[in-house]
Specification:
WD40/YVTN_repeat-like_dom_sf, WD40 repeat protein, mainly beta
Length: about 300
């Protein structure tokens, strides 16, 4: 049985991610504007520090291209920086016309290649793309009317990836990354900027798409039809992040706020019912270590790792 522990992360960790290292072990990534650290959640040991002096970051994730070692991609104020996940060494800097990239997502394409997608905040307001194996830029995807602040990939069984992006216009656009065509009309319903999106596969084979905005409202959608699913959830006072997941086959949402509402809440993804009492922290990520599901959350004291309650 895993015992709760707090990793003494220096400064506030803004974003948490997880990945599997070259040895197959689970790693927890925690980072703020100046550095990203990789931890072994089973032992609590710090494994790698990624700090190459990048000019501020808002997001990062690990890409796993086939036949290549995993690499860390960091979204910065001047493009994407790439790092070796073992040594922390900076491999390459792609300023991509000096565009500020504020969000990242990755997908395995139908032809077997892996693509990294980035939210291009400055003009021409497009989704930036890179080949994750070669780290070379690909043609931009889509065209938006305003700054893009978030991008996400929805994996649809039997169809392939769907790329979603949203910005200051509050609408969510859907794009086919193979043809480059926009799919359907934008998803409209949020009354402020959406800054977090995700999806979860449902037991019946469907996929649920979820979005959270700066006023703490979470909305659920059918990613193909664009139709709203259920009523909006007023999850937090502000800045709602959302992590969709399956807990023993039951679709759930972990949401968190920022600022005055630094707590994690858990909801039934289909009914919108609140399932249990709030837990401290924000930016939750769920890890599976030695067959046990754990939840990691960020907070002023560091990164807290504890067993995930199976509500």
């Amino acid at each position: 049985m895993f015992q709760e522990r707090v990793l003494p992360h220096p400064g506030m960790a803004w974003v948490l991610r997880d990945f599997r290292g070259p040895d197959g072990g689970v790693r927890l990534l925690a980072g703020g504007p100046d550095a990203v650290r990789a931890w072994d959640p089973a032992t609590g040991e710090q494994v790698t520090v990624f700090d190459a002096g990048w000019p501020g970051t808002s997001d990062f994730l690990v890409c796993h291209p086939d036949g290549c070692a995993p690499v860390l991609a960091v979204a910065t104020e001047n493009g994407v920086w790439w790092h070796d996940t073992v040594t922390g060494e900076c491999l390459e800097v792609d300023e991509h016309a000096s565009d500020q990239v504020v969000g990242l997502a990755t997908a395995r394409m139908p032809d077997g290649t892996h693509t990294l997608f980035g939210a291009g905040f400055l003009g021409p307001f497009a989704i930036r793309r890179w080949d994750a194996a070669t780290r070379r830029p690909l043609p931009d995807l889509g065209g938006h009317d305003d700054h893009i602040v978030a991008v996400a990939v929805v994996d649809l069984p039997g169809r392939g990836p769907l790329v979603t992006a949203t910005g200051w216009s509050h609408a969510i656009h859907r794009w086919d990354p193979v043809t480059g065509a926009e799919i359907g009309a934008p998803l409209v319903g949020h009354d402020c900027t959406v800054h977090w999106m995700g999806s979860v596969a449902l037991p019946d084979g469907r996929t649920l798409f979820v979005s959270g905005d700066y006023r703490g409202t979470v909305r659920r959608w059918d990613p193909l039809t664009g139709e709203a699913v259920g009523e909006p959830i007023k999850a937090h006072q502000d800045h709602a992040t959302v992590l969709p997941l399956l807990v023993e086959g039951r679709p759930q949402l972990l949401t968190s706020g920022v600022g005055a509402d630094d707590v994690v809440r858990r909801w039934d993804a289909l009914t919108g019912e609140l399932l249990d009492e709030p837990a401290p922290g924000f930016s939750p990520v769920v890890l599976t270590v030695d067959g046990e599901q754990l939840i990691a959350t960020a907070g002023p004291a560091g990164v807290r790792i504890a067993p995930l309650r199976l509500t």
